[in-house]
Amino acid sequence: MTASSKTRVLVLGLDGATWTLLDPLLAQNKLPTLGKLIENGSRSILRSCIQPSSEQAWSAFATGKQNGKFGLYGFYQRAKNSYALEYINASHRRAATLWRILSDRQKKCVVVNVPLTWPVEAINGALVSGLMTPGLASQFTYPPELKDELLTELGEYIIDVDIERGESGPTSLGELEARVMRMSELQTRAFELLLDKNPDWDFGMLVHRAPDILCHKFWRYQDPTHPLYDENEAGEWGEVINNCFAYLDEYNARILEKYADEKTTVIVLSDHGFGPLTHAVYLNQYFSQRGILAYKQQQSGTLASAMRAGVKRLNNPLLGAVKAKVFEALPRLKSNLHYSMAYGNMDWAHTKAYAVGTMGNVYLNVRGREPEGMVDPTEYEAARSEVIAAMRELRDPETARPIFDFVYRREEIYNGDALEEAPDVIGLIDGPYHIAAVDWRGANGQVKNVVEKVGNQLLFVSDTSGQHRMDGILIGSGEGVASHAKFPATPQLIDLAPTVLQMLGEAIPSDMDGRVLNELLTDARAPEYAFETAFENKMDGEYSAAEEKEIEERLAGLGYLG
Ligand SMILES: [Zn+2]
């Protein structure tokens, strides 16, 4: 261990970790590293942001701000004044990250695998980008020469594992598990390598993505209450998630032993929690039944029906590897494919509002704002109230439980320069329901059941059985952290950036929305605030038209386009 006389903060992210999974393992002493950190420090639920999706949640962590300031509302979001969907990356984020702020103050940062850090930003230290990086061919490290060093030192590197496949046989499930484990090992070693190269680091952060990936895919095998639970399958795959937490605990032990001295503050956190996914909700179909949205008459031979045929073929697991390669080469293609399927058949002239994405984001179709807007601006509030009322009435037919835990007008939860780009209505799901904007079952507008239990039919492209929840985890330990802290209010993700700055004795930008979690600190001081200088994102995250065209042709050549 390198001896250090200065306070450092080490953040270990467990993407998607949740106490409902960790507590039984802690009770059986299967996570000794986390157990020791909790024993010597403090633990809490950590409330995610809205929506609790990894790209937004890690941005909330990194910026200490809510979405109206950092300007991201989904993995793909609407391009301005258009129905087109854009696949987002770090170039779309409109607020400074913690490592940007610390770098500007000459603090040294080592950041590995935080989602949405590509394109990479130049920092004081080193960075390896995570989820939403286009692939290994891209420039995914800062400094740039680090990429070759990493690949030489480790032999290979894995940025993320694509789980978007359909039916999975045992072989591919086993392969997925092995590949996720390999990814975690490589990323842990990359983090160690970078800390070794930057022994004077002040802020170190590694995000383990494995729990998120595996909880999406393997939830059904370890949850006897899940509709797809099967005892035999559970015998084979029921321990995959638990085993993952156990090996990550060992990796984290290795990191702590080597790099956390007595002056190091350790934070372990997740960006959101996890729970079962049991139902698909066809929100746009529901809007169509309520007269809020209209589909054109389905015609065979349209692009949408060709795409539908193509996507059914993508569902073939034999094609999974090819598909993963194609999407790695051009992630924007995913959004194009999705867009054509979801919105290619929309009758905009008769559509007041429509849902985008898998969580509950809804845009109104406003005249003068959308290309074919039909809601007169003077009718905006009335139309929005109609949509909100409809969403609040949508219930699980079996349990009568509301699908949405909350339905908000955007200005009720967001504020800032990017508010105008937010969905007009935001439905928050903190239960087992997954919005499917695209109906893979048949013709749009002709299906009766808008809430359907997961089964063997294709309900969405990924056959996931777990999904995000609002309540994640927070553990603090080491230098300056109170033991068994009591939190008067549940800590939120946006509280972490100001808290880390406080731990490092740094002033906090006055436009951060989070609060310093003083109850977590032994030395509770009044925070010092600084005026933040305007942040301008200068990253270039565009894919060239040539890249896009090339990949579309390749896809068509493979027969993916029908
Ligand atoms: Zn996540």
How would you describe the overall organization of this protein?
The protein is of the alpha/beta class and 562 residues long. The protein has two domains: 330 residues, Alkaline Phosphatase, subunit A (3-Layer(aba) Sandwich); 189 residues, no CATH class. The protein contains 18 helices and 21 strands. Strands 2-19-9-1-8-5-6-7 form an eight-stranded mixed sheet, sandwiched between helices. Strands 12-13-15-14 form a four-stranded antiparallel sheet. Strands 16-11-17 form a three-stranded mixed sheet, with no helix packed on it. Strand 12 and strand 13 form a beta hairpin. Helix 8 packs antiparallel against helix 9, helix 8 runs antiparallel to helix 10 and helix 12 crosses helix 14. The termini are far apart. The C terminus is likely disordered. Bound molecules: zinc ion. Zinc ion binds next to helix 3. Zinc ion (ZN) binds next to helix 3.
Molecular shape: globular
Q: Please, what is the CATH homologous superfamily of the largest domain?
A: Alkaline Phosphatase, subunit A
The tally of structural domains comes to 2
Bound molecules: zinc ion
Q: Structural class, please?
A: alpha/beta
CATH architecture of the largest domain: 3-Layer(aba) Sandwich
CATH class of the largest domain: Alpha Beta
What would the average pLDDT be, to the nearest integer? 87
The amount of beta strand, in percent, is 15-25%
Distance between the termini: 57 Å
The CATH topology of the largest domain turns out to be Alkaline Phosphatase, subunit A
Strand order of the largest sheet: 2-19-9-1-8-5-6-7
Unreliable spans: 164-169, 315-319, 554-562
Largest sheet: 8 strands, mixed
Instruction: Give the radius of gyration.
Output: 23 Å
The count of DSSP E runs of length 2 or more, i.e. the number of strands, is: 21
**Tally of alpha and pi helices:** 18
Q: So what's the oligomer here?
A: single chain
